């Protein structure tokens, strides 16, 4: 596994070493020891989630607060998405800034998203299967949402607005200026 730091503290791109032959391929999708050696900490994942989405579905930007805040290791096993995070950690130089990366079954890249970041993705292919590990359990009362189209974030979702499909819940997500500044 190769690891790459980003400008955002503890936001890490993970690219597996893929072994291919005429039978197919094999790769190690996570190794706690090698991650800890690179990052200096070892997440303890307790929950795995999976979703499938069709073209244009935008899920997010979601986060949990308080004792239920989550770090995530996200990847795509079918299709392609644009994965986006927004740093909500007030004491970080990247506070209120967005980061995006294409994740796909083809590139097999993963993104480690630390606690304190809102996270979302939009499906760029006909369908996409998205898998992620969490280091804390889902808690409905702790869940919050940040508006994907907040103009202060200047996120290019790569699709025209009319092609974006949101859940009713995500249509109600909050603008960044309306979030308390002491979330994390």
Overview of this structure, please?
This protein is mainly beta and 184 residues long. It has one domain (2-178): Jelly Rolls (Sandwich), CATH 2.60.120.10. Helix content is 4%, strand content 40%. Strand 3 and strand 4 form a beta hairpin. The protein is globular, with a radius of gyration of 16 Å.
Keywords for this structure?
single chain, Jelly Rolls, 5-stranded antiparallel β-sheet
Topology:
Elements: E1 2-5, E2 12-15, E3 19-21, E4 24-26, H1 32-39, E5 47-54, E6 58-64, E7 72-78, E8 80-87, E9 98-104, E10 110-113, E11 117-123, E12 127-134, E13 143-145
Antiparallel strand pairs: 1-2, 2-10, 3-4, 5-12, 6-11, 6-13, 7-10, 7-12, 8-9, 8-11
Main sheet properties? 6 strands, antiparallel
CATH topology heading: Jelly Rolls
**Spatial sequence of strands, sheet with the most strands:** 1-2-10-7-12-5
- As for the number of domains, it is 1
Give a concise summary.
Its EC number is 5.1.3.13. By secondary structure, this protein is mainly beta.
């Amino acid at each position: 596994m190769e690891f790459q730091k980003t400008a955002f503290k503890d936001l890490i791109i993970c690219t597996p070493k893929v072994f291919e032959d005429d039978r197919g391929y094999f790769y190690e999708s996570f190794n706690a020891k090698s991650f800890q050696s690179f990052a200096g900490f070892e997440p303890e994942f307790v929950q795995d989630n999976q979703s499938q989405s069709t073209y244009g579905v935008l899920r997010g930007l979601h986060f949990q607060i308080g004792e239920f805040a989550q770090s995530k290791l996200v990847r795509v096993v079918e299709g392609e998405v644009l994965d986006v995070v927004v740093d909500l950690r007030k004491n970080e130089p990247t506070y209120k800034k967005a980061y995006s990366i294409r994740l796909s079954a083809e590139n097999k890249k993963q993104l480690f998203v630390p606690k304190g970041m809102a996270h979302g993705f939009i499906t760029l292919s006909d369908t996409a299967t998205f898998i992620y590990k969490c280091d804390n359990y889902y808690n409905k009362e702790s869940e919050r949402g940040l508006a994907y189209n907040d103009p202060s974030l200047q996120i290019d979702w790569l699709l025209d607005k009319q092609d974006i499909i949101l859940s009713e819940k995500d249509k109600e997500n909050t603008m960044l200026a309306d979030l308390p500044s002491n979330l994390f």
